[in-house]
Please model this.
Amino acid sequence: MGSKLKELVKEKELSNLYIDLSEEILKNLVFDSSPQDNQNQLLFLNCIENSISYLADDIYKSFKSDIDPIEDLNFKFKIIQLANSEVLKNIILKEIEPSGFIYQLEDSKDKLVSDHDKNLIISNQSNDLKKFSLILDKYKIFKELLRKILDEC
Model:
């Protein structure tokens, strides 16, 4: 009973796996507002969220003496907690702003799961292939930048 759970897959590998899954899902999205496509869009966004969460867990190992524990937080708050490190602060905070991929990810998810009044004129950009591709590309750049910083430290 007292034995520790053996780690079968590292966080870095899980993060990469979820990115691969999101890329495969993106290839099959048609943005036709069908229930199946809406579920696939949600699955795409959840895969990116999971990838971010595992990336944060992986990075946390290098900074755990400087940052409060993050294991009970969701993907966004894990990243925000990592921003408490001076080394990561500038890179992370710009991705939480409206031009950053985390904000765009949450905005896209909100558009999928919330019921909007059909009588309101909405000026926000709807979910489409370009937006989802942009989120994925920005996340990959962010991920590589963080990993390069870790390699240099």
Q: What stands out?
A: The helical segments are 11-28, 35-63, 75-82, 89-96, 101-113, 129-152. The chain has a mean pLDDT of 89. The radius of gyration is 17 Å. The CA atoms of residues 114 and 120 lie 14 Å apart.
